[in-house]
Amino acid sequence: MASTIEKIKQLREETAAGMMDVKRALEESDGDVEGARKVLRERGQALAAKKSGRAATEGLIEAYVHFNGRVGVLVEVNCETDFVARTPEFKEFARNVSLHVASMRPMCVSPEDIPAGALEEERQVVEKQVAEMGKPENISKQITEGRMRKWVAEQALLTQPYVKETDKTVGDLLQETIQKVGENIVIRRFVHYEL
Predict the structure, then answer these.
(1) Starting at the edge strand that comes first in sequence, how are the strands of the sheet with 58-65 ordered?
(2) Burial zone of 39 (CB within 10 Å; 0-12 exposed, 13-18 middle, 19+ buried)
(3) How confident is the model at residue 18 (pLDDT cuts 50, 70, 90)?
(4) Domain made up of 115-155: CATH architecture
(5) Is 110 helix (H, G, I), strand (E, B) or coil?
(6) What pLDDT is stored for residue 114 in this prediction?
(7) Domain 58-109+156-194 has what CATH class?
(8) 152, 144 in Cβ contact below 8 A?
(9) What is the DSSP letter of 162?
(10) Which among 167, 4, 187 has a CA at the least distance from the CA of 12?
(11) Distance CA 103, CA 71 (A)
């Protein structure tokens, strides 16, 4: 019994899930902490997906200026209520996003926002590089598409590896924060300044 309480406490601290949710997840995974963590993550992602349709009209603008004063970022992050906008979790998320934008310099928020001109320009460069390899046409197409997918993921904020934890993307961090605060969150826009 004591070990179960310890597991519940550990999982609650790690996931910010409710006690009953953690207990049910442990029961489903026969007391396996790793299995319970996976169950909670899947439920949290499903919950976050449900919330994504809700209007996010409150929020805040977070500013980050690098210590040397030569790099600055403004990020608008929205949520559903002003109550959540004042929580430490939300403020920390906005701060982390602004820090990420300052260091990784994404082109836009999501892959769909990449300008068509930039996509076409990059495609021409990649196709030229791949043509110089002298591969068969079907393999060249696969290489080109793979490189384009990688390039798009590197340019969009939500698909970039998160600067503090490279094993997850900024989109994963967003989903985790939605699970923690219980509201839809949207990274609306950002501006990156550099001298």
Answers:
(1) 58-65, 71-79, 186-194
(2) buried
(3) low
(4) Orthogonal Bundle (1.10)
(5) coil
(6) 92
(7) alpha beta
(8) no
(9) P
(10) 4
(11) 9
pLDDT in tens, 70-113: 999 999 999 988 899 999 999 999 999 999 999 999 999 999 99
Q: How many other CB atoms are found less than 10 A from the CB of residue 81? A: 15
- Region(s) of the chain under CATH 3.30.479.20: 58-109+156-194
Q: What residue ranges of the chain are covered by domains with CATH 1.10.8.10?
A: 2-51
The beta strand positions in 146-194, using DSSP E, are: 186-194
- What are the residues facing 77 on neighbouring strands? 60, 187
Architecture of 2-51 per CATH?
Answer: Orthogonal Bundle (1.10)
CA neighbor of 190 nearest in space, from 64, 85, 66, 84? 64
State pTM to two decimals.
Answer: 0.71
Mean per-residue pLDDT over the chain, rounded? 85
| Three-state secondary-structure class, residue 108 | strand
Which of 17, 9, 10, 20 has the alpha carbon at shortest distance from 40? 17
DSSP labels for 27-76? Answer: HHTTT-HHHHHHHHHHHHHHHHHHHTTS---EEEEEEEE-TTSSEEEEEE
Integer Cα distance of 144 and 136 in angstroms: 12
Q: Each residue of 55-67: pLDDT tens digit? A: 677 899 999 999 8
Q: Could you tell me if 79 and 59 are in contact, meaning their C-beta atoms sit under 8 angstroms apart?
A: yes
